[in-house]
Amino acid sequence: MNLEHSKAINVVQLVSEASVIILYIISIIPAMYYVLFWILIPLVVLNFVLSIVKKDSTIAFTSVNLVMSILAFIPVIGWLAIFGGIFMSAMSSLAILTDLKIIRTNHNSSSEQAFARAEKKSSETVNPENISDVKVIKKNKNKSN
Question: Which of 55, 58, 71, 104 could be stapled to 51 by a disulfide with Cβ–Cβ 3.0 to 4.6 Å?
Fold first, then answer.
């Protein structure tokens, strides 16, 4: 998958996850409960399909969110499912933001670590004792020539 396509899918996923969170919050209102689930479930299915197509780290979150959106129709368990869906959408959004590198992770790639080591070596100060050793070696080479 092209990098531009991957970023575009991530942006679409991020916007739809934000919409899912808003719809879950609005669905707490009893009058809006059934109306919003006609919008919420297709949006959650869209997120699930996008995560399968992209094969990224949000597959687990979106699959659990799909189950939560269906369980939200059950009267007593529904409240827990709504709050679980909000949490899963938030976790999925954080994973997407990490993929977009908007949120930095503490994991450095090996190339970044190698660059940091090379930069550290180049910025090390020169030991004065070593400089005198070099001067002595140069004097000895001049005397032998």
Answer: 58
Q: For residue 46, what are its two tokens?
A: 């869209």
> Average pLDDT of the chain?
77
Separation of alpha carbons 78 and 68, rounded Å: 8
How much is the pTM? 0.66
From CA 89, how far away is CA 71, in angstroms rounded? 15
What's the rounded Cα separation, in Å, for the pair 112 and 108? Answer: 6
The whole-angstrom separation of Cα 69 and Cα 143 is: 87
Nearest 10 degrees: Cα torsion 25, 29, 31, 34: 40
| Cβ neighbours for 48, distance < 8 A, ≥ 6 positions apart | 62, 63, 65, 66
How far apart CA 141 and CA 129 sit, in angstroms, is: 19
pLDDT tens digits along 86-103? 999 999 999 888 888 875
The secondary structure of the chain in percent helix, strand, coil, rounded to multiples of 5, reads 80, 0, 20
